[in-house]
Amino acid sequence: MNVFAPASIGNLSVGFDALGLALHAIDGEVLGDVVQLRHSRHHDWLLEVTGPFADALPPDPESNIVMSSCRRFERRVRALGKDIETLQVTLDKRLPVGSGLGSSASSIVAVLVALNRYFGRPLNRPQLLELMAEMEGAISGDIHLDNIAPSLLGGLRLCMPDGRNQHGLPWPGGWQVLVAWPGTRMETKMARDLLPDKLRRSTAVAHGAQFARFVHELYSGDPRDAAECLVDLIAEPWRKDLIPGFEAARDALMDMGALAFGISGSGPTVFAIVDDSRVAEQGKAWLQDHFLSGPRGFVRLCRADLAGARLLEQA
Hints:
By secondary structure, the chain is of the alpha+beta class. It has 10 helices and 13 strands. The protein folds into 2 domains: about 1-170, 2-Layer Sandwich (Ribosomal Protein S5, domain 2), CATH 3.30.230.10; about 175-305, Alpha-Beta Plaits, CATH 3.30.70.
């Protein structure tokens, strides 16, 4: 059994810890992690890690979030009075670690969806979502669904702070998303620790108004009016200086005609929303030439992945 879980943009500028968008690369590149399950004669879980970013993960399987997810799933299912066997698990690590593309969420979603399907769905959706949020919280330091929910369910997701509830939002069909990972790493917990514990009242009011207007415009307004609301007043002011070339990239892409520009999750990946193929091509070329700093960095033109985690046909 092979299960794929897509990359995602957390926050989407205006929705800190509350909005997340699943991504599908238009060029066909696999933008997400894949987990394979196989029967094993061994009496414990076995984990193998492959893929282009396998070297970014700890060599000890017990330190890998996929192994932790397997063990937590086993305990949760046994607590329901059901017995399960241990398996051979292979993680094809296709997403860079610490990139701001929901890398850990993709791994967690892929393995837990695979396990739940393999064993006949012993956990219902709310139970599965809660378990995924717990595992993600073990990495980031806080429980939130803005990467988990879109990777699991697809599309644009509005996630409640209780870590259990989420809702789908409409995504404008003409919007495409450029994502650029510079090739460097930023740990989510470190990026969260940069943020202040309190906001000025005026900032909180402006943020709430922009967030509410964004959701309203998605349902009833012009997509360009919705894009105007994609402004980050909470995290970007504190994180942008950690991303070399952020302001130059933002200014260049917005001057070209991008509808919005921001930090994907905790960074260092940035994203731009476009609705014009010419702007998409020019923006992609500019980011490739001026923003990427590492040999493994990349730029992808994406659309919303509306399917979320899914079973892949085995060759």
